[in-house]
Amino acid sequence: MFRKISAVFLLVVCAAQACAQEAWHSVTPGTVVLFRHATAPGVGDPAEFKLNDCRTQRNLSANGQTQARRIGEAFQQRGIEVKTVWSSQWCRTRETADLAFPGRRVDQPLFNSFFGSPAQGSSQTQAALDLLASRKEPGVLVVVTHQVNITALTGVVPDSGEGVVVALQGRELKVLGRIKP
After folding, report:
1. What's the whole-number mean pLDDT along residues 3-23?
2. N-to-C CA span, the chain
3. Distance of alpha carbon 145 from its chain centroid, rounded?
4. Which of 36, 59, 86, 161 has the fewest Cβ atoms nearer than 10 Å?
């Protein structure tokens, strides 16, 4: 019985690794990788949250900082050139982008979290889609944002530090794969 359970576990692990490799193979010029910020303990933001004051926000843990660096290393190891890095204006997304892709981050407010104001989610998501659709640069785009944004755009609920690889098809996003942290 133990051998059967071990064999099934091994198959599941191998299948997960194959899926992860497939996701990396789908990162090609013209694709977008939507990353949820790396690990920042907690949920939402404190009541005293101020956008330009990191002391008032949830921030990356030491594990989250390591996770962010590994994101950048994974792209380098695979020889994937990232043309552009957009980030929400929250400190945890900026830090994730800066640690993964030093000196490349450009703030993009359309990818700010709407967790605390869900009524604006639909219009902000549409505006973000419009921005993605209007992008002319042919290279890989990385967007570091929040779970609510990625879920609204793709239907995927990513883990901290997880990337969702998408391709634009007209004004829609097609999910090509998931890059696990």
Report:
1. 46
2. 32
3. 6
4. 59
Q: What CA–CA distance (Å, rounded) separates 163 from 146?
A: 11
Instruction: Single out the residue of 43, 27, 44 nearest to residue 35, CA to CA.
Output: 27
Q: Cβ(110)–Cβ(129) under 8 Å?
A: no
Type of residue numbered 94: R
The token pair that represents 47 in the structure block: 């009541």
At 140, is the secondary structure helix, strand, or coil? strand
Q: Which residues contact 28 (CB under 8 A, 6 or more apart)?
A: 140
Q: Which two tokens stand for residue 30?
A: 């013209």
Q: Which residue has the tokens 């999910």?
A: 175
Angle subtended at Cα 75 by Cα 69 and Cα 78, rounded to the nearest 5 degrees: 135
Q: What distance in Å separates the CA atoms of residue 92 and residue 42, rounded to the nearest whole number? A: 12
Which domains does the chain carry? 2-179 (3.40.50.1240)
Q: Is the pTM of this model over 0.85?
A: yes
Distance CA 101, CA 95 (A): 10
3-state secondary structure at position 13? helix
pLDDT in tens, 56-79: 999 999 999 999 999 999 999 999
Q: List the beta bridge partners of residue 174.
A: 167
Q: Which residue matches tokens 């010029």?
A: 29
